[in-house]
Amino acid sequence: MKLIAYKYRFYPNNEQVTILAHTFGCVRFAYNSALGFSKAQYELGNKTNYNDWSKNLTQLKKNPNFSWLKAVSSVPLQQSLKHLDKGFKSFFKSGFGYPKFKHKHGNQSASYMSNGFKWSADKQSLTLAKMKQALKIKWSRTFTGTPSSLTVSKTKSGKYFVSMLVKEDVKQLPVVNKTVGVDVGIKDLAICSDGTKFNNPRLTNKYAKKLAKASRKLAKKKKGSNNFNKQKLALAKIHEKIANCRKDFTHKMTSTLINENQVIGIESLKVKNMVKNRKLSKHIHDANFGEIVRQLEYKADWYGRKVSAISQWFPSSKMCNECGLLYSGKWSLKIRNWTCKCGAVHDRDENAAINIHREGLRLAA
Ligand SMILES: [Zn+2]
Asked: What is the DSSP string of 285-314?
């Protein structure tokens, strides 16, 4: 059994819009209070955790000034504290991605465990805690399992989505002989040891003009006016379009890699090092490297493939794949081609992909 995510758009009625707005606000409040508390305590030399935040929340609910917190389901409030806990753990483990305060104008979301919603498989209806009616969902795909948790969200452009985690059986793919090494790059999104290239769509660049134009238009409008709000929505829609294209492209790429190969070697920690380099980080964001590794790993788990993660210290780019010698001069990101002392001429990324392939197989064996 695997946990599979299914995401659907839904259309809330007026009552649901109100409840959701209230819930999103309370979730944001619970999360931000806990984050603020944790920061303040940290400066005093105290470490706090989920249990402390949860106690604080219980106290707040007893305070008449915050009684509005009781009007919404307690499940998403608790879940927001769990998310913060996860955020801190991942920050301490990786050293980046310190949890940020949630903003009123960002994407809104609330997560529910199974005690926060009712699912009826016969009627195919989903009802959230505190709501009288089931959500009007556009069922774009079907699933057979039972949802174990879900997240409802509202995008900046005002669309509502529900994303459910469903326990299901997944048929593994037949074993294949082919294996591959993947170098995630800037020029191409990914270069494979078998010669395949996945071109970086450089979506931000493609949409940069559109974005700039929409932003300029917004700057000219009077803040808070109808025209301002309209333009803000237009801008949010462009951002959503970019995010969707990026997601589609990444999914197509990782599915192809998983379908065709039994073992996939990849430098999983590269993301972290590259994001530290500020000049590169815009492009990294563009290419969504962390997401590539995440998708490869869960798809490999579903379909019986193996992702072989290469150490960040492995010199994939500057080692000659023919003789094993390291590049002797000063290594830099600008070097695209180089010639080894043995005479072999290398394209930086293709050479890296071949080395990653070999190292991936060695580690997987
Ligand atoms: Zn060589």
From this structure: HHHTHHHHHHHHHHHHHHHT-EEEEPPTTS
Is the separation of the CB atoms in 156 and 240 below 8 Å?
yes
How far apart, in whole angstroms, are the C-alpha atoms of residue 193 and residue 143?
A: 36
Catalytically active residues, by annotation? 183, 267, 349
Closest CA to 298 of 251, 353, 354, 260: 251
**pLDDT tens digits along 144-186:** 889 999 999 999 999 999 999 999 888 899 999 999 999 987 6
Distance 328 CA to ligand 1 centre (A): 11
Angle at 15 between CA 154 and CA 143, to 5 degrees: 55
How far, in Å, is the centroid of ligand 1 from the Cα of 273? 26
Strand bridging mode 2-10 / 137-138: antiparallel
Cβ atoms < 10 Å from Cβ of 139: 11
What is the Å distance from ligand 1's center to 200 Cα?
29
pTM over 0.90: no
